[in-house]
Amino acid sequence: MKKKAIIGIVIGIVVIVGCVFLIFNRNQKATVKQGSHQSAMGLTIKKNKRNTRSRNNQNSQPNIQKTTENNDQYSIDEWMLMGYMAYAHDNYVQSRHIKNNAELVNDISEDLNNGDLSAKRNSSNTYTLTNKFGSVDVEVEKDDVKVTNDGETINAKSELKEKFGAYADKIKAMIKNI
Fold first, then answer.
1. DSSP code of 175?
2. Model pLDDT, residue 55
3. Measured between alpha carbons, how far is 127 from 80 in angstroms, rounded to an integer?
């Protein structure tokens, strides 16, 4: 009888230790996953891949233009910012817990104003945007905007207009920081 009781106690202890180990292991993985999303304040670099069809290179334009060739209602600077916002959306959701495009536009405007994000024009239609996590290149093309150096993200101008057209005045005010 004593042997059965001792064996029962040993089995019970092994089961309890096993359960504690599994619970601890799961909590540790969840903490690491959650910590990686909350530890960074600002933009985190994340690779997004979308449409990777070939593009015409427009870097040969010598003069800086304020609007694109097809007389869009937005300037090249505005298209660049909209393309960057579409690229950075998921990163701002994770790091700043934004809930909508209005908050995204406000956060990027604040980052440009306080210097956390800088935009440099490289040519008439190419830019480099830099923050403490790295930099990406943005190229405004005839029908879309391409973000590279962190994978490749391509957004059609029609999609960008639909997402960010309501914030055109705010975006127009942001271009003074370029």
1. G
2. 41
3. 8
Structure token digits, residue 46: 């994340």
Question: CA angle at residue 128 from 124 to 132, to 5 degrees?
Answer: 160
**pLDDT beneath 70, residues of the chain:** 27-72
77 near 28, Cβ under 8 Å? Answer: no
Return the structure tokens found at 65. Answer: 């233009």
**Phi/psi at 155 (5° precision):** -125, 130
Beta bridge partners of 118: 130
Which segments of 96-163 are extended strands (E)?
Answer: 118-121, 126-131, 134-140, 144-148, 151-156
pLDDT value, residue 90: 87
Contacts for 50 with CB less than 8 Å, ≥ 6 apart:
152, 153, 154, 155
* Its pTM surpasses 0.70: no
pLDDT of 28 reads 62
* CB 157, CB 93: distance < 8 Å: no
